Amino acid sequence: MPFPGLTVIGERINPGFASSKKLLDARDLAGIAELARTQVAKGAPLLNVNAGTAGETDPAFVAELVRTVQSAVSVPLSIDSPAPASQEAGQRAYDPAKAGGRPPIVNSVAETRWELLALRRIQRAQVLFMASERMQDGAATPNRNADEVTDTARRLVARARTEHADLQLSDCILDVSVGPMATDTEQLLRCAVESIRRIGSDPSLKGVRMSVGLSNIGIMLPKVQIDGMPIGLAFETAFLTRCVPLGLDMSLATAGRDYRVLPEGHPALVAFDEFIGCDDGFDALAGLKKVYKLATPITKAA
């Protein structure tokens, strides 16, 4: 059963994917337009647009990319750049009329790059906030536990709504961040689950949306399968199974993947619960390696 209420933000226009990097490096606009159409055809109601390093140094390319994608599909776009000039170029290029009147997303505002929020003067955009880092002593500092993430989330939303009276809670998207499960000695995945729980139950944040970069979870996991599912997909769906009921309602992910609610007792869900329930990150990884040994290799037919 798919996840009710979960919005997938199509992630593939991003140089983190080898095939997409080739298109972006070659400035292959026709190929990028086709990639956008493919994601929407697979069910993505939103698309992320990330030009990578080229986008940070060439704002005109970001604008061209936004216009290209909007010429191909009629869904809203998340314009993903930390560079103010590139974010501004993308916001100015975005035409709400080509997305059914729906606004873009500024991705992503943090306490360390607050100036991006001012770009809402161009478009009354929704905003994706990074709750995974904070400003401390004048420098960016990663949040390492749920207390820090939740406190940062409250500050981000309160400050933004004070400065932008038209910004509704439903326009605020909090990204709590997840990293590769295979190397998670700092228990950031456990932190993400607990942070989602706390934000989802916080009366002052009622109405905000929450998101993660779901594909990060499966990075560096071996090519094995659990109960017929590739292990990366299995743990991504386990994460969703636990977090969607807590309030997670968006995810940067690959449209068309078989994300589905796992039943209680599913081997991947049991292993995921044990992983995030472990009090020591190295013990959690040791337990994960035992799961690898019980999994089966992925064959070409699979």
Detail the poorly predicted runs.
none
How would the global form be characterised?
globular
Number of helices: 10
Strand content: 15-25%
Give the biggest sheet: 8 strands, parallel
Number of domains: 1
Q: Could you tell me the radius of gyration in angstroms?
A: 19 Å
Find the CATH superfamily.
Dihydropteroate synthase-like
Determine the mean pLDDT.
95
* Helical fraction: 25-40%
What topology does this entry show?
Blueprint: E1 7-13, H1 18-25, H2 29-41, E2 46-49, H3 53-57, H4 59-72, E3 77-80, H5 84-93, E4 105-109, E5 126-130, E6 133-136, E7 139-142, H6 146-163, E8 172-175, H7 188-200, E9 209-211, E10 224-226, E11 229-230, H8 231-243, E12 250-253, H9 267-277, H10 281-294, E13 296-297
Parallel strand pairs: 1-2, 1-12, 2-3, 3-4, 4-5, 5-8, 8-9
Antiparallel strand pairs: 6-7, 10-11, 10-13
Helix pairs in contact: 2-4, 4-5, 6-7, 9-10
Describe this protein's structure.
Helix content is 39%, strand content 17%. Strand 6 (133-136) and strand 7 (139-142) form a beta hairpin. The protein has helices spanning 18-25, 29-41, 53-57, 59-72, 84-93, 146-163, 188-200, 231-243, 267-277, 281-294, and strands at 7-13, 46-49, 77-80, 105-109, 126-130, 133-136, 139-142, 172-175, 209-211, 224-226, 229-230, 250-253, 296-297. Helix 6 crosses helix 7 (188-200) and helix 9 runs antiparallel to helix 10. The protein is globular, with a radius of gyration of 19 Å.
What are the main properties of this structure?
single chain, about 300 residues, alpha/beta, TIM Barrel, eight-stranded parallel sheet, about 40% helix, about 15% strand
